[in-house]
Amino acid sequence: MEFLVRQENRMPVMPVEEAARIKAAEREYAQQLRDRGILRRLWRVPGTRTAIGWYEADDATELHDVLSALPTFPWQTITVEALATHPQEQPLQRE
């Protein structure tokens, strides 16, 4: 299943070293998700601390497990939309 995920990062001010450690762990985890084919694309919303991601997971439970393992999960406000293929995107059937 495909999901559109909006992640608003609300990480509080913290010591620079701790913030850097968490951000590095987040980048490493995101790369692991990319390597596994779960995180397909990631965009930043200009002027905000929000990212929009295109995820592919077996189901909503797997997506929940993936998102809740994010190092920044405790500070994220997350909204998820399941996606279905639009008829315009389906291949034309030849008769």
Automatic annotation (TrEMBL):
Belongs to the muconolactone Delta-isomerase family. This is Muconolactone Delta-isomerase. Homodecamer. It is an enzyme of class 5 (isomerase). Its EC number is 5.3.3.4. It holds the Pfam family MIase. It comes from Sinomonas flava. It comes from the Bacteria. It catalyses: (S)-muconolactone = (4,5-dihydro-5-oxofuran-2-yl)-acetate.
